[in-house]
Design goal:
Elements: E1 14-18, H1 22-34, E2 38-42, H2 45-54, E3 59-63, E4 65-66, E5 69-70, H3 72-81, E6 86-91, H4 96-105, E7 109-112, H5 117-125, H6 140-154, H7 159-166, H8 170-178
Amino acid sequence: MPDAAPMPVLPDPSLLIVDDDRAFGERLARAMQKRGFVTTCAESVAAASEAVKAHPPAFAVVDLRLEDGDGLQVVRSLRSIRPEARAIVLTGYGNIASAVIAVKAGAVDYLSKPADVDEIEAALLQSGEKAVPPEKPMSVDQVKWEHIQRVFELSDQNLSETARRLNMHRRTLQRMLSKRAPRDVRV
């Protein structure tokens, strides 16, 4: 078995993860802890703002759309208190306009969900202007699987509601959900 890549030694490994999808936030926190980060999770703009005021982190991963507002508020707040902090914005609703707004607000990168842990770590630690593209990006099947699972979770695992939101036949969705995830599904 090959040796694992050495974890970077971070002078300040504090990482704030802001996402209203609790399961996703917890999985990401566990994955980032294994990579040497000390994580704090928040599920709202209000909770994240309190965390930033109490202990401004060196790094942040912030969902763009939260239940109580815009994740960019958290990025702006963090950058005003700790200008050298590196924040990235994650979203399931990616488009060029919101990416530009996120970077103008102080984010160092903008990633679409589902994002790979390697991509997130690379974006946080990248010292240059632009993050390096992943060597092994997610396949179309993996992205499709993650998206369906996310909508299914957001629909409280209601099959009919998920099928309606995805604009697909209920039985087709049921067959897709009964299959195993593609091999490389991440986070």
